[in-house]
């Protein structure tokens, strides 16, 4: 009896704060896909009333550049029009290497250059969750391109950051989360040759035209006037998770606050801690 009591106490001590039971791989994947990584921000169709959740992940946004026109495809489990017929290895290769089973390269709109930082466990979790996504039959128009720009890994995202390293350092964890959330795909300075993560990390300025007009990615470096330097942690967390800026104004798409709303306070806090370390621009 005594032995059992000790075992229970140890097990209870090992539970995460809040007392929630350990999450399964598919649950972890659900969290990653639908909050931090906001896959639906591109892959879910948008109707007049916002994202069409009954057709979640069945194909969404169109991306047009001088070099290519692509649509975020159907990644539901439909075998004919989605990825239901792909093996786990094929899905992982598309996510982290940007290569389809037929060998075709994906346009770098799909943020594979950020996803190489994913740990094996998180990649397994994403695939486990995708397997649970209801099949929706939907085709997106064929892709067309003259050239695909060369894709380079985001600096620091060349290899997975182990779980233990993140558990030991909140800023490191924040970098991991902000990277898989690809915040810096939008909030980086853009030059005629593409993004400049070395000199323009967090500087913003990239324009996003859409039904909302044109939104401009904000400067989210620690600059005291142009960036977030003068904001409190709570104000930054509120902007990320509710889309309300410091002055109370509402942020426009494609900032993914509707997805980030579901992030745990710990994960939002880690991202804020990392943003604080960005040199002012
Ligand atoms: C910024 C927009 C964007 C985000 C975010 C995004 N994707 Fe994509 N994804 C795309 C686009 C666009 C393509 C197609 C590119 C092409 O056709 O060359 C694509 C292709 C894919 C493919 C290959 C499918 C096929 O039929 O070729 C898979 C699998 C995929 N994405 C999974 C995901 C997952 C899982 C996530 C989240 C972890 C995600 N994507 C996040 C835009 C995005
Ligand atoms: C797909 C592009 C995109 C992604 C990804 C993105 N953002 Fe944004 N973000 C924007 C745009 C555009 C705005 C400005 C919206 C506006 O002004 O209405 C913005 C605004 C913000 C603001 C408000 C700043 C201010 O001055 O009001 C913060 C903070 C922010 N983003 C942080 C983040 C973080 C952290 C991430 C990753 C977890 C992220 N963003 C991911 C496009 C993006």
TrEMBL record:
The keyword RNA-binding does not apply. It comes from Acuticoccus mangrovi. This is C-type cytochrome. It comes from the Bacteria. Keywords: Heme, Iron, Metal-binding. Residues 24-134, 168-279 form the Cytochrome c domain. GO terms for molecular function: electron transfer activity; heme binding; metal ion binding. The keyword Disulfide bond does not apply.
């Amino acid at each position: 009896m005594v032995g059992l009591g000790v075992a229970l106490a140890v097990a209870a001590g090992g539970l995460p704060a809040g007392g929630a039971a350990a999450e399964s791989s598919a649950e972890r994947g659900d969290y990653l896909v639908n909050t931090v990584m906001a896959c639906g921000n591109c892959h879910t169709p948008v109707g007049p009333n916002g994202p069409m959740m009954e057709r979640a992940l069945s194909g969404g946004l169109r991306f047009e550049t001088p070099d290519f026109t692509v649509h975020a495809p159907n990644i539901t489990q439909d075998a004919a029009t989605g990825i239901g017929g792909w093996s786990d290895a094929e899905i992982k290769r598309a996510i982290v290497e940007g290569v389809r089973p037929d060998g075709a390269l994906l346009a770098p709109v799909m943020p594979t250059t950020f996803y190489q930082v994913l740990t094996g466990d998180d990649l397994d979790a994403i695939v486990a969750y995708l397997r649970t996504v209801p099949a929706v039959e939907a085709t997106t128009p064929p892709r067309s391109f003259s050239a695909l720009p060369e894709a380079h890994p985001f600096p620091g995202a060349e290899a997975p950051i182990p779980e233990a390293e993140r558990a030991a350092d909140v800023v490191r964890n924040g970098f991991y989360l902000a990277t898989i959330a690809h915040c810096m795909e939008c909030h980086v300075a853009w030059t005629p040759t593409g993004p400049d993560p070395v000199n323009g990390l967090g500087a913003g300025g990239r324009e996003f035209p859409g039904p909302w007009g044109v939104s401009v990615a904000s400067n989210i470096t620690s600059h005291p006037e142009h960036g977030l330097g003068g904001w409190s942690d709570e104000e930054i967390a509120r902007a990320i998770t509710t889309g309300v800026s410091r002055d109370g104004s509402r942020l426009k798409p494609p900032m993914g606050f509707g997805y980030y709303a579901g992030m745990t306070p710990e994960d939002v806090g880690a991202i804020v801690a990392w943003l604080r370390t960005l040199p002012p621009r």
